[in-house]
Every structure is written in structure tokens, then in C-alpha cells.
Amino acid sequence: MNMETQLDPMKDDLPLMANTSYMLVKHYVLDLDVDFKSKVIEGSIVLFLETGSQYRQTSIAGKECCQSQFDETCKMRVSEPCHVPLKDVSTCLSKREYSDFAVSGKEEETTFDENSNHSNSEQASGISSSKDCSDTENHVNKDFLLVLDCCDLSVLKVEEVDVAAVSGTEKFTRSAKLTDASKELENLRNLIVHELVTLPADRWKEQLHYFTHCSQAPGCGELLFSTGTWSLEIRKSGIRTPADFPHAIRIWYKTKPEGRSVTWTTDQSGRPCVYTMGSPINNRALFPCQEPPIALSTWQASVRAASGFVVLMSGENSAEPVQLQEGMLSWYYYVSMPMPASTFTIAVGCWQEVKQQSFKQTAAETNTEFFLPSSQTDFRWHEEICGHVEYPCRFQNPAARLQAVIPYRVFAPWCLMETCEEYLLQLIPQCLSAAYATLGTHPFSRLDVLIVPSNFSSLGMASPHIIFLSQSVLPGGSHLCGTRLCHEIAHAWFGLAIGARDWTEEWISEGFATFLEDVFWARAQQLSHDEIKGQQELKALLRWRRLRDEVQNSEEELQVLRPKKESTGELSESGASVVKYGLKAEKIFMQVHYLKGYFLLRSLARTIGDASYLASLRKFVIKFHGQLVLSQDFLSMLLEDIPQQKKAGLTVESIFQNWLDTSGIPKPLLEEGETWKDCQLVQQVSGEVAKWIQTNRRIRKSSKKKMKQDEVVFQQLLPDQLVLLLESLLEEKTLCPRILQCLERTYQLREQDAEMLVAKDRNHMEKGTGTA
Questions:
Q1: CB 475, CB 315: distance < 8 Å
Q2: Angstrom distance (rounded) from CA 690 to CA 308
Q3: Are 24 and 52 in contact (CB under 8 A)?
């Protein structure tokens, strides 16, 4: 069934339209110009394609059978072929959803002109006309359609790329036996692309060289295309199967200022910048792509911007700018590890690199040299053959396996450089080394950390080779900065190197990162066993309180970690699917997948013991890096390693039932909720809360008398203790303005980090004393 007809108009689901079962993008080559005056990114993208799994499977049954499927698929997409040959996805969305997410508030009407391939009131539709309606219907019904995810883009032209014109590519076709003279050149081009995308990993540099030159080859014929609200559909007249469809195509396009994949803004120093902000629609408003996670690809990009701007991007190399004409620089990045297109990240701004004196940096790194993997025996797993598609894998590189601290850089607006140098720069090697000590080989070869503009809606975001951090993590010392940095570093393993096969299972990424941030940060601080236990119990209580509040104040359907249950991971025949609730506005701000995921992993660790549990995590990383997983992949492997006497009735099915497939607080967690109050750090906070309540009552009784500064002595608290203190005082209904002012002075709340400020603001708002 056509993906468009399956969309439920009553739900805020994100459609993934790309027909990845028929064709897969293996490599993207972007060539872009960034124009801050018009707030537009413009240029071209070349896609190198291979036939997908569904086509290869059906081909075994014979070409006629395969062709009938494509005929049927195309018929499903036809609506009134004499007037509108391709049915637009917006017709399957509700009026509310459609009006919210249409490109310009009104879907572009596709029209036809007898003498033009490009006739649309706003942008080219690419659907050619026909003098005879039956002829149009016949062609549309039989031509294969390549469907890409695309939104908020102006597509200008699509063309086939003549890769056969590139010098040196003839070596890829020496063994070819081409007999059909009429199709010889088309087959030759596709054969070149096939040989290029399947080169072995040890020839990746050669592969990158030919990708570059082939992407610059001339066009050899325009292709027909149509844009809808969520997709770009491309066809070549007379081509009926993916095998015959051009395997190298170039798309000329430009973004729109209102496009939702990037945000145009100013940094904290007032200078213009643009960056990918982690939009719910991912990167489809930045470039046409295949969004389903299964579409793992590599990419390279050349980006031009005016001098003074720095281009940062997901890339293995630390790009050095090349001077073009006066006042213009070009930046080039590439990756050789296949990943979903949604992980591509770019940030262009007047960023300044934060550097430290060499002796300081050496000292910081020296302090982390003692970190080694928890067990040298864990490295025996590295000797196994990797389970992922072939690429230059760091897990098979002896030097990479011993690299505790990968090369890193820090960038920030000019006005934040001093703060970054004081806190952030020295934390990075400590956190990287702690992560290495926990999980082993770093999946990525380098790391950039960027302090993004103040409109960034999160505390952090991890992408391949680059982490975005909010300025909110910088005040208040190293605590929030360190924990957030550890969280984002953890995503290198869980979320990037290992991804969820179904995006609705966000807990696989966020739950693991939340659990591991505590482990990394404890090691980075070199805490004792008792200190680690105390801090982690305190953190668990804070998270339990957040989960309790969120469960009480959110829709039940959004509290389920596996909302598609038994159908999780299933795709339509074409490969298209939906991300359930992916566009639901309130879901963006929810933490349930962080918190319930964390508590599940914490429960499993307590069941089998921390040492055994971390060993299982390392085993899982080695077995599944470079691959996409479902919940059962991790749970099944973990349960296999648990001795029978420790399983306590644990099964994959019981975990689904208690933790992943139901709303609310999981039953096992309800039974544990009161135990954290016995923690010494928590009891200390309880004592301080009692002092503040007593002081508040005394002030209220003698409101005309000033409270002497030395009447009560308050203890110094750890950052997480202070958060718990403020949240506990929030539950008091009668705090007076003077006590709030005293709290600010005692704990210097204005200088604290984001978590503290949120708790303080909640106190002010709920007490109605914001202007007191």
C-alpha cells in the first residue's frame, strides 16, 4: 500500500517517505553556498545510489514479478492523471496537520505546460506534460519513482550525472559484458557507480577521490520531478525498475529562510550564524535525503561562506579553509562511516577556537593518563569480525583501540571564550578518558565542541565528530558542564555508532546516555566507591521526582517507550514508515525516554552487579557498533549473560510489559521509590530543608524584625543537593519573599547553572513572588 494513504490524519506522526526498499543512497556529495543576507543555503547535492533489498529480493522471482510490483506502486500514486499525475502527500493529512506543516501555508499546485518540464507557480514541479492524457497515465503508471524525504526546499533542477566521463573510471568496467548497444552507456554509468560504492574499506581514500570527481562530472539529461509537502519524487521517462534508474543524480536546490532544519540567528556576541538545531523534521529542509534510519550513508561536503565565518560540520577531518575569490572561503569535510542522514550537522558562524597554553593542556591530559579500560580481557572481542557493513572501522585499528583521548577542539562566540577556557577545555580530556575506561575504543576519530547560540532549546546535542552545548552549562563551575559533556560523549556509542532501527525507541539512545553520564562523570572526578554510590543515589532520587511529575502532567500515550509495540521496526513494502508522535509539540520537551530508560538500565545493573553489567555493555558495543538495533537485541544479549540464579524471572517479554510497553511509572520502580531517602546526601538535604522552613516560620511571625545573619548556619551543598533543596522548598506553600532573597544570597543562585536556575525560577513563579 502507498505510504501516503497509510498516514493517520489524527496523529502528529512524522512521515518517512523515502522508498529505501527499492533504492538506497550510499553517498552524498554536497556543494553549497551560505548567504547570510538572504538567509539561504544554495547549491547542489549528488546522490550515489544502489538498488535496495526489496528490489533485489523480488528480482530473484523474475523481472515480470518485480515489474508488476512497481506498476502497482505507481498506480497507487496516480490521482486524476490528466490533471494531477502524482498524488500529493498533503491530501492524506488532516487540515490541522497540513496547515501546520505545509511549506507556505498552502500546498503548491502542480500544473502542466506542453513545452516545459518545469511549470509551477513557485518552484519547478518537473512533471512533463503530454498532449494525450492516456499517454501521460501510461508513462506515469510504468515509470519507477525515486522518493526522497524533502521539505521546505526549492528544487530547481534534477539531472543524471555522466560518471563515465570521469577519467580513470574505465577501470571499474573492464570486466563488464555490455551487449545492448541502446542501453550500453546507461548500464556503464550504473556499473561504475556500483563498483565505486562497493569498493573495499581499505580503498576508502580512492573511493573518496572518485566520489569527488564523479560529483563534478557534467549532467547528461534532466530528470522529471515533483515536490510535495514531505517528499521529492524523481523519475526518468521510460525507466521502469531501480536497476535501470540512474545511479548518480544531481539535485540543484536552495533552502528557504523559514526552513525548519536550520535556524538563522545571532550568537552571544551579536554576530550572524546558522546551525542545525535538532529539528523534529531532521535534515530534510537542508537537503533532499533518505530519512529512514536504515538508509545508512557516507557524505562529503564543500561549503562556501564569507571570510570571517567558520564552518563546523560532522566530519572526520579538521577542515582548513581554502581562499577562493577575495572575501570567500571554502570548507571541506567528509565521513567514511555510514550513518543516517539525520545525524549530519552543520554550524556556520564567527566562532572562535578556544585554546589553552600548552603546559596547561599537557597537565590536564596527564591527569587522565591513568584511565585504562576496566578489563584488558575485554579487548579480546575486538579480534572478532565486525558485524556492520564494510568501512574503515576504528575497532579494528590497533592504534585507535589504545587512544584514551581523541583529538578535540572547542569553539565559542568571542564573549564566552574565557569561560570556556576556564571550565570546558580542561573537562574534555577527563570525560573522554573516563568514557574510554568504561566502553573502550572511541567510535569517532576526533571531536569538536561548540557553544551554540542562546536560542538553542536543549542543554546539548551530539552528532558525529561534533557536540553542541548550551551556554547554560557554563556557569556554576564544572558540575553541569561535566555531566552534560559526559552525556553527549556517551552518544558516540549509543545513538550514533549504535542507532535505533526504529526512531520511536529513543530510549536506546537517551536512556543509555543518561545512565552512562553518571558512570563517566564519577570516573572523571576520581571519586571513591562510597562517594560514587552517594551521588548516584541522590541523582536517582532527583530523576525519580522528575519522572513522577512528568507522568502526572503528560498524556499517557507519550509515556510509552515502545509505542508501536509488536510492530516496532516494521516498514511498508517500499521502506517508508512513520515516526509515531514525531511531530507532537509537547513530546519535544518530555524526558520520559531519558528517565524510564535510565531506570530500566539501573535496575538491570543492580540485578547482575555493576562490573558484570558494564562488561556486558562493552560486549554489546563491540558486537553491534556500526549497526541499527531494536530493544530486544540488547535485552536478549544481556539476559544470555546473566546467571540463571540472578535472573529473578527476568525475560524480554516481562521487561517489555513492565518497562517499555506501558505508560506511567514502572511497577519495579514504584517499589524502590522510598529507598533513596536513606542516602546520607539526601538526609543532609532534609536537615537543611528543615532549617529553612523553621527560619521561614520565624520570619513570618516577626516580619517587622530583621533576621540576624548569624542566627542560622547553613551547610555547603553539592550542586545536586542544592537542586533537591530548592525542589523540596517548592513544596512549601508559605515561603515569604525575604526567605527567597536569603536563599539567593546564601547559595549565590544567580551564578549557578541551568538546573539550579530552573528550580529557583519555579520557586518564584509558584510562590507568586517574581517581582517581590
A1: no
A2: 55
A3: yes
d(C-alpha 301, C-alpha 45), whole Å: 9
DSSP 720-745: HHHHHHHHHHHT-S---HHHHHHHHH
Total Cβ atoms within 10 A of residue 52: 21
Q: Give me Rg for the CA atoms of the chain.
A: 28
d(C-alpha 43, C-alpha 139), whole Å: 30
**Model confidence pLDDT, tens digit, residues 461-503:** 999 999 999 999 998 778 899 999 999 999 999 999 999 999 8
Closest CA to 659 of 629, 628, 632: 632
Grid coordinates standing for 428?
574534555
Least confident range of 28-42, 82-96, 728-742: 82-96
From residue 512, give the alpha-carbon distance in Å to each of 436, 449, 465, 486, 637.
Answer: 15, 21, 19, 12, 15
Question: What's the farthest any 2 CA atoms get from each other in the chain?
Answer: 101
Cα separation values, 612 from 405, 615, 619, 643, Å: 25, 5, 11, 11
Active-site annotation holds for 488: yes
Compute the distance between CA of residue 310 and CA of residue 267 in angstroms, rounded to an integer: 13
Contacts of 137 (CB under 8 A, 6+ apart): 78, 81, 82, 85
**Residue 176 — pLDDT band, cuts 50, 70, 90?**
low
Selecting among 50, 488, 505, 688, the annotated active-site residue is 488
pLDDT tens-digit readout, 377-435: 444 444 568 999 999 999 999 999 999 999 999 999 999 999 999 989 999 999 999 99
C-alpha cell recorded at residue 387: 558485524
Which amino acid makes up residue 195? E
Lowest-confidence pick of 71-85, 218-232, 407-421: 71-85
pLDDT band at 572 (very low <50, low <70, confident <90, very high): confident
Mean pLDDT, residues 262-271 taken together: 96
Q: What is the DSSP string of 585-629?
A: GGGGG--HHHHHHHHHHHHHHHHH-HHHHHHHHHHHHHHHTTEEE
CA atoms within 13 A on the CB side of 612: 14
Q: Provide the total of helices (H) and of strands (E) in the chain, helices listed first.
A: 24, 24
Q: Name residue 330's beta-bridge partners.
A: 304, 322
Give the lowest-confidence range in 370-374, 415-419, 750-754: 370-374
Cα distance between residue 189 and residue 245, in whole Å: 10
Cell 587512544 belongs to: 403
